[in-house]
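Morning, I've got a small favour to ask if you have a moment. I owe you a coffee for this, so here goes:

…
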Amino acid sequence: MAEVASLAPNADLLEWPKKDKRRFLHVVYRVGDLDRTIKFYTECFGMKLLRKRDVPEEKYSNAFLGFGPEDSNFVVELTYNYGVSSYDIGTGFGHFAIASQDVYKLVEDIRAKGGSITREPGPVKGGSSVIAFAKDPDGYIFELIQRGPTPEPLCQVMLRVGDLERSIKFYEKALGMRLLKKVDRPEYKYTLAMMGYADELETTVLELTYNYGVTEYTKGNAYAQVAIGTDDVYKSAEVIKLVNQELGGKITRQAGPLPGIGTKIVSFLDPDGWKTVLVDNADFQKELEHQ
């Protein structure tokens, strides 16, 4: 009986991520020239520059860009470290994705502004969805997906993983995500899973890709992390500890306030070493109000 009793609090705790108010806030990555990237994203992709901050004492600057305000939309947080002009993207990072009502026109615009198109617009192999791929000045790939109107055009972050079932379980249990779609393409030797908090066409999803037989990837030093909102970083950290014990990964920054800013966060790695940061929802809102 004692064993059953000790399992009960854990079972309750593991329900927390499903009840919590979770939302993808932003994705953080490093660029070699902040103004060059801002120009490319605003002119070629149609993003808006939402805010910019310089932290000279720490020798870095940030810019936040997206298709809508940060309190409702997913955005990119670009980091420029003083004096660092290039980064290694590695083999594990896949792409970001932007939904557009006219991919052909978007590609024309990107090309006219000197952008690089790595896949011409057209239907996907064996399907009808129209896609294209573009490359930004730092080498990050953006998939351009043709879709109807959507509240969230910045719609995907794709990462490669070494064990898809383990990753699905991790993001379900540790982060309360739902498996929205799973597609196996044996002819191309890959399987992918779309994970998220709402329908794929309404919000941002994490696309996890497993390439048959590949269990490890290099992370490079360019892509950093995804940030997700939570109503309780401390409770969320307890869940992550439990899931880390079962599936792997580790907490890299214990739950608590960030020095100088005061926003409470907890950061951790998944079993493949991909980093996520959970950010206190109320603190994040205060940050936006005081910018």
